[in-house]
Amino acid sequence: MRSRLRSGILSLLVLLLLGGCATQGQINERDATGDLGSNQRESPAKIYVEMGIAYMREGQPAVALQKLKQAISVDPKNAAAHNVIAILYERLGNPELAGEHFATAVRLEPQDPFIRNAHGSFFCNQGKFQEAEAEFESALSNPLYPTPWVAMTNAGLCAERSGDQVKAENYYRRALSANEQYFQALYQMAELSLQQGNFLSARGYLERYNSVAEPTAGALWLGVQIETRLGDFGKAREYQRLLLERFPDAPEVQLLNQSRSL
Fold first, then answer.
1. What letter does residue 214 receive in the DSSP assignment?
2. CA atoms within 13 A on the CB side of 102
């Protein structure tokens, strides 16, 4: 579950570029749109933030950290810089510094849905489920948020982690109502349906997932389980073949081998 939450966080890094990297001026508290509904000034930190994100994607956290520190140095009030460096600090195992930078980002741009979504994922990873849900809902309250299905899915993951499958399913369904092809929500609904014993439903969601995303080791292992439960051993063997062929060193292969020995 934690790895899927992190994947939700990583997808946010792409969206940060869409959200802009400028700081915001005076806020009209009756306007829930924040900087998404106003002209934004160019910040000297923007290029450093973009470079930091790029280095994070390439697996070079040391260089990314250097660039993000430069971003904050040239523009200490740049909320995006604080947001991204907070995400990086969390990945580096420093939740204290991550929390400080998230708090600064929220203070600087309290209506930015991308920041609220990332802060919600951080809270969830800390086991602060109520605080996490409040942040996700804050993100969703912005009517100009272009990708609300991301926050909805993250909220569902967090609800599931807290043990509330009913709330999780509600969030996943909301996400798919907003974007019926959002692969993460489709995957989560397939997995949740399997756990609930709704095997045909699980198959349907997984097939929809496979039509919009490249299968991961987790998705292939999920297919093995679903088709085995439905008694379609031919399909189950095909999922097994793809899993062993494409991801021979994945943890899911160990789960497959364990299931065979039972």
1. P
2. 24
CB-based contacts of 234, cutoff 8 Å, min separation 6: none
Radius of gyration of the chain (CA): 20
Tokens representing residue 218 in the block: 């987790």
pTM of the model: 0.84
pLDDT tens for 130-151 read: 999 999 999 999 999 999 999 9
125 SS3 class? helix
Residue 122 lies in a domain: yes
Question: Which residue carries 């991550």 as its tokens?
Answer: 98
In a domain, 255, yes or no: no
If one counts the domains in the chain, the total is 1
Report the b/e string of 113-135 with b at 16+ CB within 10 A.
Answer: bbbbbbbbbbbbbeeebeebbeb
| Domain span holding position 41 | 1-146
Residue 53's region, left for phi above 0, alpha for psi from -120 to 50, else beta, is alpha
**What is the C-alpha to C-alpha distance for residues 132 and 92, in angstroms, rounded to an integer?**
20
CATH number of the domain within which 128 lies = 1.25.40.10
Judge whether 204 lies within some domain. no
In a domain, 129, yes or no: yes
Give the residue with greater pLDDT, 3 vs 226. 226
Instruction: Taking the CA atoms of 57, 61, 64 and 69 in sequence, report the sign of the dihedral they define.
Output: positive
